[in-house]
Amino acid sequence: AGNIMITRTGFPSDLFPALLAADATVSFVTDSSSNVQTVSIGDCKQGHVPMNALLTKLSIPLRSTGTYRYYRVAQRKWLAQAFVNAGFRVDVDPVSKKISDARVAIGCYAMGPKRSPTAEEALVGGHLDSETLQRAIAGLHKDFDDEFMSDAQYKTVENPKGKDDYRRTLPDAFLFKFFQEAQAANGIKQHAAGSLGTMKPLPLKRGVLKFEEQPGRGDHAQLSAKGLTTGAVRYTDDTRVPSLYGYLVLTQCCTGTLRKIDASAALQAEGVQDVITAADIQGQNSAGFVPGEEPLFVPEGGEIFTSGQQVALVVATSYRLAKKAAGLVKLEVENANKGAIVSLDQAIAADSKLGGAALTSIGAGKEEVEAALMASERVIEGSTYVIGQHAFPMEKQSACAVPEERGGLTLHTSTQAPDFCRAITAGILGLHGKGSLLVVKSTRAGGGFGPKNSRSVPVAAAAAVAANKLDRAVKVQLDASQEHSAIGGRHAFKANYRVGFSSDGSLTACCVEAWGNGGCTHDFSGFLFLEVAEAVPSVYGWGGKFHIDVHGMKTNLPSNTAVRSFGNPQGMFITETIIEDVATALGKPAEEIRTKNMLTKSNAITPWKQSMDFYNADALFEKVRSDARFAQRSEEVERFNAESRWRKRGISMVPLCYGHSYVYAAGTGALVNVHSSDGSVTVHHGGCEIGQGIHTKVAQVVALTLGCDLEAVRVADTSTEVIPNMRFTGGSITSEVACEAARRACLELNRTLEPHRKFLREKKAKEAPKADLVDSLLMREKEKQQQEELQKQQEAEKAAKAVPEPISAGELEDAARELEEMQKLHSSKAGQKKEVSELEMLKGARKADSEDEGEAIAMPTVSPEGYVYATVDQLDEGAEGGLQYQVVHKPFVAVRHLPGPKGKVVNSLEYGTFVDTFGWDDPKKKKYRKMFCRMPNGRIVVAWIMASHPELGPLVEPAAG
Questions:
Q1: Which amino acids does the record list as binding FAD (predicted)?
Q2: Is the pTM of this model over 0.85?
Q3: H/E element holding 623?
């Protein structure tokens, strides 16, 4: 109801055109009459419903026939005002196929939504064909063209017409699309040349993301991911200190002279503590990349060279009061906007250049390239334009300055350049030679990837000047409007080019002249122009004859700055425009031109004579081409386009080239501390967390190198007092450098800690670990009981399966007699009657066993259960002969025999392992065998156990103990 009623005031409703086409009606009452009145939805718009009416009912007629559609186009699918919207309805006679009734309603085009009577009249009585469509479109323009409403929100200096031309075409496109669907709905055959094809909603795309597994690498979410998604993490504005709040006063014109700042009304406003201006600066009034180029605050009598320049900072007890009072500050400006240069074309015409970045050139000599162009078989020339782009960080530029003792200051700021910010701000505060009193800290930056470099400095420095003067903490944060008007973005570029090539598509020479809009100051423009110049050659050879000149132009727009993918999009756009134009001139696919002119491993040298030793772009291009079935899919696209006049498809492959290296001032150090109380780790490094996950990467490297849990590692806020001289985070290199610095620090710690680790390992091996907590003792005791119960259960199950064969008394006597004979035989062979140690007897027995002499070790004892054994006390030489003795923890039952060392038989037992046997006696003759094992009491025994099966061996279980 509210949407319908406010449409009367010009609201761009999405609902109203749909209701107009559906012949909806509304019912209402007023405060002067209780009678319910009903009018058409169109009459509601035209003022037939009083402003004090209460809408009580909305009715839409139910129709059994007819075709109805609603269309809209906007910047986004959701939460965006429509460029144009429309509702259409036609009733078609099923016999004659003529249109008997029609509705055409258009919104967001003229002043409010309305029907088109002329278009409706043109439709009624006609067929759903091209002739009727053309009459209806003509009717649309007759009714609406004179009332077209231009939308100022899409207009810019570089695009003064905004989206007006595009919006004028949308009613025609909507009506054409409606005709296609109405023909299909009414069974009317569509002309092949005019068919749109089947209108189907695009399904959701599905894909699988696969990671390459590497040793030591685990995919891990950002350590702050849960806090980011729940709003629990803190940003600069969340700094918990009692503070005042500042709101900046900015210039509203592009040029002029600031004659006077009248802050008298603001100073009298509620809650205002002070108005900070250039007069309050104790040091240099310079906040830009180039000293003296960009003042922090424009002083009275100073020149204005762009809109959004800082003039003053209103400080109050709340943000709301500071913002309200800032509107009371009056600026007296002379010659406002006189001679302002607000576009790149204006700057080129006026030859307005940035002095320190006026020209950047790379490649072969220009005369050499011009000669190659003259000799080329074919030459074309062209021009292209790359528009600029504003950054839109979720967290705007913000800072919190907190005074400290000795005239120091802690500056919390959302930045990518903490040390750069510290150096500039220290100069503004007059801390010459005392810059260490100023500490810059950054917890995280809520987006930016470029604008949080140099453009964070003016806001932070303004907060610092205010805090220094008032000796109170001061917070400053730009709102979205200020951010958009004061902070520049991606540089706009214009490029003219001439390219030579042969009829087979080989490029022979290229000369490019480009102009970049740097804005009002240098900022990072000099570096960016070099990036653009190096990006344009890309991966192509250009016949070895390539030259580019990039001119840095100065305008009266906010200074453009670093934005993610610094300069490369502009350079690659220029490159691929040239490639596409060559392909068009030759009538060849662009991919063919790209493949033919791509550098190879043998000639991978840049125009500035740098050898690319690790070049493999050509091989990667072909692999992707093959894996993606590019040729087959290109043929499918061509077939589809040949069959469809209006709907078209496309497919393309474009190689990219990016110069990645250890760039100027992007390096950093790391400090890793291990806490002795619990082994937890604190890490400091100079990189800034801007959403790329640098803290998580560093923490993973530290945990991996030190061998600790990731949860034990904490990465502290970036601080210039811990890791100084880190100029900025950027260049796609800082995370890697920070990780390497942390890794090297951890390696030093490992070397320092190794003697202590060795001592603790040895101590742990000798002593049972002592738990510090009662919970640990109880847990271990519980686990021990569970293990013992499980073991007893397993023993009972195994014992139940073992059925010992009864042994007769005669068999026991035979076993004892055999042992006695073997002992006598051993004594006679020794040649003397003397006592022989059990270990020597063991060695002799093993030797005799290998000679099949069957010697015994010692006089055996026969147990009542039929277990005959002899004992040996010495255990130290137990591994002699390559055999290793193992403890048999429980009574054993032999179940199988396996090959052992030196070809002997080793019996594998359920409750222990026999590690040696002295050979098998013939089970048919002797019915027993002899074995060697170590018992739970630590004694080594040689035993003869009666055999019941020639393959399984003995199945006799000795008594426990």
A1: 14, 55, 72
A2: no
A3: helix 617-627
